[in-house]
Amino acid sequence: MKKNTSIKIHFLGAAGTVTGSKYLIDTGDKKILVDCGLFQGIKELRLLNWNYPPVDIPSIDTVLLTHGHLDHTGYLPLLVKHGFKETIYGTYPTLDIAKIILNDSAKIQEQDAERANKEGYSKHHPAEPLYDLKDVEKTIPHLKGVPPAQWLPLFDGIKARFQYNGHILGATFIELDINEKRFVFSGDIGRKNDLLLYPPLKPKIADVLFIESTYGGRFHPDEIEAIPKIEKLVNDTIKRGGMLFIPSFAVERAQLVMLILWKLLKEKKIPKVPMIMDSPMAANMLELFHTTRDWHKLEPQEYIEMCSHFNIVSEYYESMQLRDDKQPKIVIAASGMLTGGRMLSYLETQASNAKNTLLFVGYQAEGTRGRKLLEGEKEFKSYGKWIPFNMQVEEIEGLSAHADHNELLDWISDIDKKPKNIFIVHGEKEGAEALKKGIKDKYGWDSEIPQLYTIENIDFNSQ
Fold first, then answer.
1. Which CATH architecture has domain 6-218+401-462?
2. Which stretches of 339-428 are DSSP H helices?
């Protein structure tokens, strides 16, 4: 039988925007979905989560996950709800993280809907969660773990391999071989010199390349350069009698911030004040660090000593008590972009105090509360109420879990020949265009920036 040389690619997310990663590869015989994330950020994007995507979900044959973040896994319960019945593959840490994140996401959605109905600020009557804990429970049996760096046979003539990529525990780029043509999906690429994680591996062959561009137009300092900046921020904030609030992604960035603060305290470079890690999900992630030694640099004794210096809060009533306490302290809590989570509870009571500092250590997507406050807004909306905002705002880019412009260009440096197609994804317009120019200038390769819900036909006979 003659092999089909024409492949259709459906860009169902993270195309022309950062979030909602979903790429459907249609070989004519099989449909393979790479990543299955939620849209986040501006309202127009978030509303897309409620729409049935422009593909037949029950006909999808399998899902491959690059890593566990919500914008790469958060749509899975809806996929199952809409009739997907097959297997979802990812590395073991990715699936552990996905379980934590999906349960946390469902719980927050349930609580937000309940609060909206109770306080009557939703336009929807009744307000409902996008999905609930029962939907997550039905999704878990579809998850199947795979080891990194080993080829996984999927179907006749189709196999996949998951390669270490830094960024977070379990994160990989995916090599998908279809009839001897290689499709490479970068997922989210980590830093070369991460304090917690090892450098990303690099692809060597790519007939079709999908590369993220979150920071395609930005240049990060090394993480080590961020440490004295954090030291100064802590000392300045505590000296004026304020509190330092760090909204953090619960997966990996929160643990990195804990590591830095613990080392500064150990070296007596910051005062001994209460240090709070307020996130059940981050607490679960700490345990995962303890059980995934091959994926990170943190030694067991370092982990134990670091955790002993933090008040790790799980119960919500503890958060409510701490948010009203006016003593100087350092609080790390989710969410990283202030789209929800316990950090909002702290800001409801502390945002008007100019002695306090709000420190961003990760990417702030367009339209999120975090992005708006970073750009200078003096109030924000939380659970239907407008809260005045007078805190000091700081951002430290060196702690980003994403590769910057130069690191992205370096990541593709081992590819032996020009790919037939390069698609720049997972980025806003400025970052994507900067990376496109960088690839052309450095390698002489042309690339495309696909837009949401477009379809690309690739015929390898037309080479």
1. 4-Layer Sandwich (3.60)
2. 343-350, 369-374, 405-411
Q: 163 has which bridge partners?
A: 173
Distance (Å, whole) CA 381 – CA 122: 13
Q: What are the residue boundaries of the structural domains of the chain, listed by start? A: 6-218+401-462, 223-399
What number of CA atoms fall less than 13 Å from residue 201's CA on the CB side?
Answer: 18
Looking from the CA of 99 toward its CB, the CA atoms found within 13 Å total: 17
According to CATH, the topology of domain 223-399 is: Rossmann fold (3.40.50)
How would you write 258-320 as a 3-class SS string? HHHHHHHHHCCCCCCCCEEEECHHHHHHHHHHHHCHHHCCCCHHHHHHHHHCCEEECCHHHHH
pLDDT for the residue 248: 85
**Whether 97 contacts 252, CB under 8 Å:** no
Neighbours of 317 (CB within 10 A): 8
- Going from the first residue of the chain to its last (463 residues), give the mean pLDDT of each consecutive group of 10, the final group possibly shorter: 76 96 97 97 92 97 97 98 98 96 90 82 80 97 98 98 96 97 98 94 98 96 90 97 90 87 96 92 80 90 90 86 92 86 91 96 88 95 91 91 96 96 97 98 98 96 65
Q: How far apart are CA 251 and CA 67, in angstroms?
A: 11
Give phi and psi for 360, each to the nearest 5.
-95, 130
Tokens representing residue 22 in the block: 């979903």
User: Cα dihedral angle (351, 353, 355, 357), rounded to 10 degrees?
Assistant: 0
